[in-house]
Amino acid sequence: MSIKPPKFYIYIKKMEIDVHDLSHIHHLIDDLFSWPESPGEWEQYRLTGDQVDFFRENGYLAGVKMLDERQIEAIKKELGELMNPGNELNPLFYEFHTNESADENTILFHALGAWRIGTALHDVLWNPRFVMASSQLLGNASVRFWHDQLFCKPPKKGGVVAWHQDYSYWTRTKPLAHLTCWCGLDDSTVENGCLRYVPGSHRWGLLDKPQLAGDLMGIMDFLTPEQQTEFHPVPVETKAGEAIFHHPLMLHGSGENKSSQPRRAFVINVFADGVYADSTEALLTGVPPFKKGEKITGQFFPLLFKADGDPMTESRN
Ligand SMILES: O=C(O)CCC(=O)C(=O)O
User: Fold this and answer.
1) Per-residue pLDDT at 5
2) Among the atoms of ligand 1, which is closest to the Cα of residue 195?
3) Does 312 fall in a domain?
4) Does the residue 289 lie in any domain?
């Protein structure tokens, strides 16, 4: 199948780099975002103390403006190209499921690794709004990239994401110092399957992991009777371009898309610099394994933001 060469081919040709894999490039490529040049310029991106307090208390923080119209449109356009399984760079995805739903009547597109293929989804990792907020919510830590995810629910038959805690899928990385940023490319509503949270559940400890796109309520089997009583979900609707940050133990899930519009989102998962591999197996498909106990660094895990005075950060990579 032939597709129009994406913009980054042109960039790479110009730079005479013999790769198509954007994971080699650890800075902004295009002009969709701009990296602040002075400490003062960073201030506009800082979350307020109340926002940080809300996150600590509830385990999530919604309504954080992440993208403007131009950025939303650029990412949506790129997403359309990347969702095509015939895209010749598709093997660079760590995981690619055109439909991960366990229910044959619904569809959940889910993929990891888009940052290696599309310039907009690469550059969004270096969005100053994102890295500044992430550092603050990680306790003013330096921020290292873990992986990205795409979650798309088509109109009418978009599938669920079962209630889960992100860290239950990540125990091969330690210590728990992770953070998730979910960003909608469409307005997300109860009707189209917005995220739902159980405020405070990030204090429930680590639970077993359910099948991600399986039974929406499968987590119930893993909750104590007290937790089942305290299971009071709240839907969190967002405008396109707004992000929700959540804690790695935050219980969350999302329902079906029954609306006539798609519900598309990308997710960026990060951790505080210093997190190490607790496994000798590849952390992501196709990525060379680390030694057990070795700090996670290198080509696939760039340092996105260096916090002043963070003793855990020795170098940029
Ligand atoms: O987009 C969704 O509905 C699910 C997202 C999710 O589970 C996550 O960000 O961890």
Assistant:
1) 44
2) 3
3) no
4) yes
The minimum-distance atom of ligand 1 relative to the CA of 267 is 9
Q: Is residue 97 part of a domain?
A: yes
Per-residue pLDDT, averaged over 255-280, amounts to 98
Domain that holds residue 66: 7-305
- For residue range 7-20, what is the model confidence (pLDDT) as tens digits? 444 444 444 443 69
Q: How many domains does the chain have?
A: 1
Cα-atom radius of gyration of the chain, to the nearest Å?
19
> Which domain CATH number covers 245?
2.60.120.620
Which residues sit with their C-beta closer than 6 Å to ligand 1? Answer: 151, 161, 166, 180, 182, 195, 252, 254, 265, 267
**pLDDT per residue over 213-240, tens digit each?**
999 999 999 999 999 999 999 999 999 9
Cα–Cα distance, 149 to 108 (Å, whole number): 12
Cα of 150 from ligand 1 centre, angstroms: 9
Sheet arrangement for strand 161-164: 161-164, 252-254, 195-197, 234-236
For residue 1, tell me if it sits in a domain. Answer: no
User: What is residue 13's predicted lDDT score, i.e. its pLDDT?
Assistant: 44
Q: Which of 46, 44, 226, 249 is nearest to 165 (CA)?
A: 249
Whole-number mean pLDDT of the chain? 93
